[in-house]
Design a protein that fits this description.
The protein is an alpha/beta fold. The protein has 18 helices and 7 strands. It has a 5-stranded parallel β-sheet, with helices on both faces. A two-stranded antiparallel sheet has the order 6-7.
């Protein structure tokens, strides 16, 4: 069975986020469209719920196009109040690596000693000018694709939007920016108001949705076939019913199941689900804490999430009674959770679209575990 292990390193179930085209299930239209946007230098956003495969799609497409430099920055763990400073520092570090490998010592020396974190506003402005200058020299040689994951964390600061606008105006057409976010729409948030800095510069948007039932089953069947693994009858149907169509959770199930088969262990979906939920709970606690960090009335948000998880759905009136707030205030809380991918609106009801979040939010320790991470 040893020969089957590479499928977990490079195949559909692999945890890596840069893959060959054949190792990304479905997403044909999204791949072609994103490839077109990059080749035609169109700035774009890629949005959707977490674990729908945004990062893998974007990084894989960008890396597959020859002749482009690629910088990937994940803003998710940046502190909210200083996220733009941390972004600039990471951009500098990534630029240094490219300049070292390209042996561009003159440009490298211009940014080697600059710092952003903890310096005065004046010095910070000088650092930004040097970064733009280095990017200008670099993009004169070859195109560069900047990918910002969970970009909403950085773009909440208008200075970040102004900085990206300056890059667009200075470096196009050899500088392409792809903004990703686990939100309903970054493009609408950034480009609908003509007074926003990035107005008119974000041309396209791709929204990734979870797989429907047919595609989710096809994903698992294809992945298990790739690994030469035969699962018990009904296993895939039951797994999809419990995990929905989220590639992130389905891939985790695929990896755990395949390893168990390789180790000649029995395949019991209940045991596998417990293992997934144990790992997923830590991820979800952290994600919700990150979303709520710095917000007022955290308890109200958590009560809404728990009630929705336990009942399967919630209305504005019911949520208003639970948190003892006016309907208008309650709608604000609900919309915040919708915009950040925790809830989804279906007619007059709100639901939790991710079945794993529903499971975790029903656990007795849910509120406590989120709060200790704030």
């Amino acid at each position: 069975m040893v020969e089957n292990i590479p499928c977990l390193l490079e195949g559909i179930f692999a945890a890596k986020t840069v893959k060959r085209r054949e190792s990304i299930y479905d997403r044909d239209d999204e791949w072609k469209n994103l490839e077109l946007f990059v080749k035609t230098r169109a700035w774009c956003t890629v949005c959707g719920l977490r674990r729908t495969g945004k990062t893998t799609l974007v990084r894989s497409v960008a890396s597959s196009i020859k002749g482009n430099l690629v910088i990937y920055i994940n803003a998710w763990e940046f502190p909210s109040t200083e996220s733009f400073d941390f972004f600039l520092e990471r951009l500098k570090e990534e630029l240094e690596e490219i300049l070292i490998s390209s042996k561009l010592k003159r440009i490298l020396s211009s940014i080697k000693r600059i710092s952003v974190l903890g310096v005065s506003l004046e010095l910070k402005e000088k650092a930004k000018i040097k970064l733009v200058s280095a990017l200008k020299h670099l993009t004169a040689r070859q195109p560069l694709v900047l990918i910002i994951d969970e970009a909403q964390v950085v773009l909440r600061h208008e200075t970040a939007q102004k900085f990206l606008t300056a890059l667009y105006d200075t470096l196009m057409p050899n500088f392409i920016c792809i903004l990703m976010g686990s939100v309903v729409s970054l493009k609408n948030a950034l480009s609908t108001n003509e007074y926003r800095p990035l107005y008119g510069r974000i041309e396209e948007e791709i929204v990734l949705h979870p797989f429907d039932e047919r595609l989710a089953k096809g994903y698992l069947i294809t992945g298990f076939n790739e690994c030469n693994v035969e699962v018990p009858e009904g296993f895939i149907d039951e797994a999809v019913m419990r995990l929905g169509g989220f590639p992130g959770w389905l891939a985790m199930l695929g990896r755990i199941t395949t390893r168990r088969m390789i180790m000649n262990k029995s395949i019991n979906l209940g045991e596998i689900m417990k293992e997934i939920e144990s790992d997923a709970s830590q991820i979800i606690y952290g994600e919700i804490a990150r979303l709520l960090r710095g917000r007022k009335n955290v308890n109200q948000y958590l009560r809404i999430i728990r009630e929705c998880a336990e009942e399967g759905e919630i209305t504005v009136s019911r949520a208003s009674r639970i948190i003892r707030r006016s309907p208008s205030t309650t709608v604000f809380y609900l919309n915040t959770l919708v915009e950040n991918g925790v809830l989804a609106k279906r007619d007059d009801y709100y639901i939790i679209p991710d079945p794993m979040i529903r499971r975790v939010a029903r656990r007795p320790e849910f509120e406590r575990e989120v709060k200790v991470r704030l």
